[in-house]
Inverse folding.
């Protein structure tokens, strides 16, 4: 198993930027597919972006061209660079580590992002 701790959330004005980080403890980080999900009040959790062990990325349509996911295996960390933020991006952002072959599906507690003027 892997423990995940997110950071970098906060209050930002529309059009602003934030960079989220997710630090993972444990071994074999480089084998996990890492993802960022978000959950707005009253809404279901949804995928924002993920990155495979091989570095292949996948984005939800609503963040394409604005958000970038990346990983640093030497630091056991995955990042989400968020640019041109919109009020509808307001949500709790959760980090996920998945290794389906071993039944691993771990979540962090989340970090709150609020986009408001």
């Amino acid at each position: 198993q892997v423990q995940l701790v997110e950071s970098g959330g906060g209050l930002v004005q529309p059009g602003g930027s934030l960079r989220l980080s997710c630090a993972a403890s444990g071994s074999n980080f480089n084998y996990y597919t890492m993802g960022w999900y978000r959950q707005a009040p009253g809404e279901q959790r949804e995928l924002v972006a993920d990155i495979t062990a091989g570095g292949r990325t996948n984005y939800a349509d609503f963040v394409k061209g604005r958000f970038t996911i990346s990983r640093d295996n030497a630091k056991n960390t995955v990042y989400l660079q968020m640019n041109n933020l919109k009020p509808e991006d307001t949500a709790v952002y959760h980090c996920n580590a998945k290794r389906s072959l071993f039944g691993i599906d771990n979540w962090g507690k989340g970090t709150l992002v609020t986009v408001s003027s």
